[in-house]
Amino acid sequence: MLNITDYIVIDKNVRFGKPTVKGTRITVADVLSWLAEGETTEIIIENYPQLNKEQIMACLKYAASKEIKLAVA
To answer: How many helices (DSSP H) and strands (DSSP E) are in the chain?
Structure first.
């Protein structure tokens, strides 16, 4: 099972504390916007070789977990 904390970090000193892919300055929002624009996982990895499929899936899981918490609250 994919563990979000293995891939996503929040560091107040990186990108103003936005959730980022661990070891990069790429935010979860960056990845989500690329996917929303129709880019495939393969294209994203081609354009940003520091990313891999698991990191992209972790971004989706992170966003889904936030939506679930909002829906329940």
So the answer is: 3, 2
